[in-house]
Amino acid sequence: MDQIAPHPVPPVARKEPRRIEQLGRVRVDDYAWMKDEAWQQVLRDPKVLRADVREHLDAENAYTKAMLADTEPLQAAIFEEMKGRIKEDDASVPAPDGPWAYYARYEFGAQHPIHARKPRGAEGPETVLLDEPALAKDKPYFHVGAARHSPDHALYAWAADEQGSEYYTIRVRDLATGEAVGAPIASAYGDFAFSPDSRWLFWIWRDENARPSKVFRRPARGGDDVLVYEEADEGMFLGVGVASDDSHLLIHIGNQETTEQRLIPAADPTGAPVVAEPRRVGVKYELDHWSDRWVIRTNDDGAVDFKLCVSEAAVPAKATWRDWVMHRPGHYITGFAAYAGHIVRAERVEALDRLVVTARDGSEHLVAFDEEAYALNLEDGYEYATTTTRFVYQSPTTPRQWFDYDLVTRERTLRKTQEIPSGHDAGRYLARRLYATAPDGETVPITLLMLKDAPRDGSAPVMLYGYGAYGHAMEPAFSIRSLSLVDRGWIWAVAHIRGGSDKGWGWFLDGRKAKKPNSFTDFIACAEHLIAEGYATKGKIAAYGGSAGGMLMGAVANLRPDLWGAVIAAVPFVDVLNTMSDVSLPLTPPEWPEWGNPLEDAAAYDLIAGYSPYDNVSAQVYPPILATGGLSDPRVTYWEPAKWVAKLRELHAGEAPILLKINMEAGHGGASGRFEFLKEIALDYAFAIWAIEGRWRGLR
Questions:
Q1: Is the model's pLDDT at 5 over the cut of 90?
Q2: How far is residue 440 CA from its own chain's centroid?
């Protein structure tokens, strides 16, 4: 008789009750000790993590490894499948700019790309601008944020993060000599901008709490940094850019509900920035200069799904705006791109994307496709005086296709199709668009991907993915990853729930602050609809989400644990009440518009306390749960999933395993490198299969 292997013993976190009184309310947090009070230093140097915390996280990792030991061959197989769908010596479509064409390419087996250029319209010779594999060698983590050339093509700058903490260092290289120019810029945000005259570099400083709070200017070839702008409101994010026609430098200021733009004329890049339109709470706007006028995208005056305005003023204050593309409910204008003779705007209608091209004479035409579910995205280019734009088309069954589109002749030129080296037969798969009915009567889109011959009797396991926050839409895109489940007979489903902008900006507004619970009930309604339509069975659905989608996972695990056969919560934002009450954390003040401020608003406190996953863990039977995190994560700190798992284990009334995996060498995005990250996805998928198949029961 075969012996059953002994059950690995889960770590038991010690309890140190901490009483917290806030707005006349009291809560007790037994696991607050997991937060290292020197977390800012840990972000920069994980070796300084407090010993007791490290010991606990190491024990959690060891337990997860032991529990999932028999899935390691499956993890390896899924990883190799996903890797086999990536063209290892791939390259981007070259982007023309003046005499050069710029691109990135991978050498066979490389984790990181080489940035390069060639003479425009000619084959030879290549100039290597940035060799990421060489810079990343022997580093546990390496990620390049922005990387770009100066407008005069003489310099190349890049921002690199070597910890996963999102503190970047910016370096500049002279392309003629190959030598570094100027001192490296430390504690920077991952983006920057050259002035159109190539003389200046504008960059953003991250403070000790990892917030972007100051804009500096320095000579592009090295010199002293000069403060250009300092944001007094710690709840605002900063960005820098350049207008499409090179007329202005732009400083972007904003949070989820309010924005402001400041302008610096390119003719005087050392001048003080001027406010375009002063910030007003609840009003978002962004702008670009279109030769002789400004084009403004805004939700002002009740334009929930946004409209476009124009202004001929030098400083486009609200009083100078004229409505140009009127607001139409349900036609969400997601953005626009300006070219000398055309504006291309992106719209989303019923969770499907389309492009609208407008010429200077006001004539318009539509760019759209016919699949039931697809994604269509503009791709940034360098040139303004051109009649060519580039977009990427994809669908759950169709790999990415890069098209150059002639804005005058309307001709589409296919420049590249994503190559799947291991093979991809789109005819084997079926993509469907379903609509679930939420408790309040709203229809919630669901995108499905399955094998054409997949049964509709509820026997197929389902991976239901959701996010539902910050207005981010879950586009029906092609994924080399989901195919590893679909090819095993799974159905991959994406729930386009409220909190995203899948059905417009109003869809986002209906899933934030007081309406945040709609995100959770929408997701549950999607699961129930899949069951009712014969696609799924209760207990054979794996729920999957990350970051704010991890909050979703925690909430639906508390609300309807019976629906799920597995829950995967990646870098989950689950300790919502404590995090939104901690003003030292990088995202707390900027995210009060999204969740509410429980430090000052009793209604916000009560609302968050009512759904925060950590605060609502109860003595009930939970499904198998896997939570993951990153030690250097400044967005969702490592202690959130660690505390959540400890409390789940304490109160869980069943026997299903609750697992935690913390990447001790990465941050919010997980491992760096195009292949290493796939190992983390393979772990998630293997856990889902292991849990749905009930293989954990054999460890009892």
A1: no
A2: 29
Cα–Cα distance between 381 and 475 in angstroms, integer?
A: 22
Q: Which of 266, 268, 242, 229 is nearest to 149 (CA)?
A: 242
% of the chain surpassing 70 pLDDT: 98
Q: Which long-range contacts (CB under 8 A, 24 or more apart) does 40-47 make?
A: 40/208, 40/209, 40/210, 42/631, 42/632, 43/163, 43/165, 43/167, 43/210, 43/632, 43/634, 44/163, 44/165, 44/167, 45/163, 46/163, 46/631, 46/632, 46/664, 46/665
The CA distance from 253 to 257, in Å, is 11
CA angle 679, 69, 53 (to 5 degrees): 75
Average pLDDT of span 329-345: 96
What contacts 133, CB < 8 A, 6 or more positions away?
Answer: 107, 110, 111, 112, 114
pLDDT at 385: 97
Q: What is the pLDDT of residue 3?
A: 47
The answer to whether the CB of 511 falls within 8 A of the CB of 594 is no
Give the closest residue to 442 by CA, choosing from 513, 504, 370, 375: 504
Give backbone dihedrals phi and psi of 194, rounded to 5 degrees, phi first. -85, 145
Per-residue confidence (pLDDT) for residue 670, from 0 to 100: 60
For residue 603, is pLDDT > 70? yes
Tell me the C-alpha distance between 502 and 651, whole Å. Answer: 36
Residues that are catalytic:
547, 633, 668
User: Are the C-beta atoms of 74 and 29 separated by less than 8 Å?
Assistant: no
Its pTM stands at: 0.92
CA 449 to each of CA 74, 436, 463, 686: distance values in angstroms, whole numbers, following the listed order:
22, 16, 10, 19
Six-digit token pair at 203? Answer: 């960059």
- Alpha carbon distances (Å) from 44 to 191, 210, 573, 657: 19, 10, 21, 33
